[in-house]
Amino acid sequence: MTSASAVFAIVVPLIAAPIIVYSAYHEASPVSGGGAARPPVGLVALLTAFVGAMELLVLAEDFVTLLIAWELVGACSWALIAHEWQKAGNLRDATWAFLVTRFGDLGLYIAAAAAFAGTGSFAFADLAQLDGWRLDVFVAGAVLAAAAKSAQVPFSPWLFAAMSGPTPVSALLHAATMVAAGIYLVVRLHAELSAVAWFAPVAITLGLTTALAGGLVACLQGHAKKLLAASTSAQYGLMWLAAGAGFPGVALVHFVTHAFTKAALFLAAGIAERHVDSYSLTAMRLGRLLPGVAAASMVASLALAGVVPLSAAWSKEKIVTAAGHQAPWLAVIVAVAAGLSALYATRFQLLAFGRGRHDRMSEAVSRPGHSWAEAVALYLLAAGTLALSLLWWPGVGNGLADLLSVHFPGTRPWELILSLLLVALGIGLGAWAVRREVSSQQSETRTAMADWFGLPTLSARGVNAVMMFSHGLARFDDRAVDAGIRGSARFGAWLARLGERRGEGAFDGATNQLAKGIDWAGQVARRAHTGQMHHYYTGIAAGLAAILIILSIGALL
Q1: What is the pLDDT at residue 358?
Q2: Residues with Cβ within 8 Å of residue 217, at least 6 apart in sequence
Q3: What number of other Cβ atoms are within 10 A of residue 447's Cβ?
Q4: pLDDT category, 366, cuts 50, 70, 90?
């Protein structure tokens, strides 16, 4: 087992446990008559299966097992997103998310085929034998599968469709399972991927583009869960960049810190939604009503913003340093992306749990609140974020590097100073933006930019074209292919009817005639059996004479 597999195998259930407990109370359905709420057994079972599939994925040592787990994760994600299928649009969104990631899944099949063609084995241990064009095909397939799964541009918009699922589903999917599968594949196979010269620039470009685009989208979003979804794409983009820069260990640690942070923020958003019956950030501001939830959310928001000495700030600074090992200008751009993280994290915290007006508080109080179990789940994840802040303690980072057998880059003073300045600037701009955000009404331009710059619209057109083509093929199949099959069936039925009317008489007559012929032949044959010896001798002599005549004729010819 590699260090990446071990870390994921431990972190996934650690994150999943409080989320599943949260879901048992958050999604409980009321029972008629005022009795106790009924726990969502189906949802809890699906979440548990989702975790099991993810565990199988991260523990796989060959492509056959990996593909089975990969398919199970995709199927579970579809079922979870469409869990509340009665709501309009949920099935469509689940299908949309499934199709986008399914397209990327083809890359993993290509990678597995290339690995088998080059090594004769599906085992990861034999991948070192890959070379030549098969290695390029393998890397291309793995990059496609991982990019789609981890919501990198241009696949990022599927995360917005995934927001149709319940809050616990969003928390688990974004923090430690579905999206994490992509970066796990990159970290797990980094030695083979980095053997191809073009992998590093492609990974850095994908990651940096997604970090900047996701950051801008999150800064403009007014929907709490979609803001966090865009943030997920951006943070995984930073992990891609770290892996492309040659530091998969940094990406691995950022996954861990991000998992605790993002899970906590999603649970906090779910609690806020239950109080105001909306995910609109402008309808919340529940800081006075929910001081404990607001405090836990603030811990996670500050960590996401990159505020020292919280956990995600340590791994974010390592990513900036990793980028600086490639080029100083790259470190500057990554620091700007980190500043965007501070901006949208500030927006989320102040809009969701800032101080609100008294009329908003009275409206929120009139709605059903949250249970103690939901709050405890949130507090545990926030406590995990605080505990991971020990990474800033001298020597802890080096000890972790030795434990995981990875290498962390040394921090340069100017990169740290620049990054912290941009974080402070992001927080200031976020607070300024919140003061100007007085309503949920947005301009059409901002709405389009907040929806991944119109990518979903373009993608929908492509999907519609594919669906039209598929319907055309279906009609061709019905009219052409099935027509031949139906014609054959009709011809067979006609033969059966013909046989029923005329065939049976003809067959019975032929059978009777054959029986009569055999009977006649038997009677003739019996005439030779008289029982007299001279008749037999005469027959033998006649037979010998016939044979001699035939042989003589053959000799003369």
Answers
A1: 42
A2: 230, 233, 449, 450, 451, 452, 453
A3: 14
A4: very low
Six-digit token string for 453: 């710059």
- Beta-bridged to residue 62, according to DSSP, are 123
The pLDDT of residue 206 is 94
Count CB atoms within 10 A of the CB of residue 360: 19
Query: Interior CA angle at 359 toward 357 and 365, to 5°?
Result: 105
Q: Round the average pLDDT of the chain to a whole number and report it.
A: 84
User: CA 452 from chain center: how many Å?
Assistant: 19
Instruction: Report the phi/psi class of residue 62: left, alpha or beta, with left for phi > 0 and alpha for psi in -120 to 50.
Output: beta
- Which pLDDT does position 63 carry in this prediction? 93
Helix (H, G, I), strand (E, B) or coil at 62: strand
Strands 29-31 and 35-38: antiparallel
Nearest to 238 by CA among 184, 318, 173, 302: 318
Structure-token match 């393998």, residue found: 138
334 pLDDT higher than 90: yes
Question: What pTM did the predictor assign?
Answer: 0.80
Q: At what angle do helices 63-81 and 167-175 cross, to 10 degrees?
A: 150
Strand-pair partners of 29 = 38
CA angle, 130 then 136 then 142, to 5° = 90
Give the single-character DSSP code of 280.
Answer: B
Which residues contact residue 535 at a Cβ distance below 8 angstroms, ignoring those fewer than 6 apart? 528
Token pair listed for 206:
């994908």
Helix (H) or strand (E) holding 37: strand 35-38
**Nearest residue to 442 (alpha-carbon basis) of 216, 159, 223:** 223
Structure tokens at 550: 């035939």
What is the torsional sign of CA 504, 507, 513, 519? Answer: negative
Q: C-alpha angle with apex 209: 212 to 313, nearest 5 degrees?
A: 50
Alpha carbon distance 280, 119 (integer Å)? 53
Q: Which amino acid type is present at position 11?
A: V
Task: Give pLDDT tens digits for 105-126.
Answer: 999 999 999 999 989 899 999 8
Angle between helices 178-188 and 132-149 (to 10 degrees): 150
Q: What's the rounded mean pLDDT across residues 235-264?
A: 94
Name the β-bridge partners of 223.
280
Token duo for residue 90: 């949920």
**Distance from C-alpha of 237 to C-alpha of 152, rounded to nearest angstrom:** 7
The residues, ordered by sequence, that sit 6+ positions from 487 with a Cβ below 8 Å of its Cβ are none
Residue 223: phi and psi, rounded to 5, are -100, 125
Least confident of 235-244, 400-409, 546-555: 546-555
What single-letter DSSP state applies at residue 254? H
Alpha carbons 246 and 252: distance in angstroms, whole number: 12
Residues whose CB falls within 8 Å of the CB of residue 140, separated by 6 or more in sequence, listed in order: 107, 110, 111
CA dist 408 and 396 (Å) reads 12
Helix (H) or strand (E) holding 178: helix 178-188
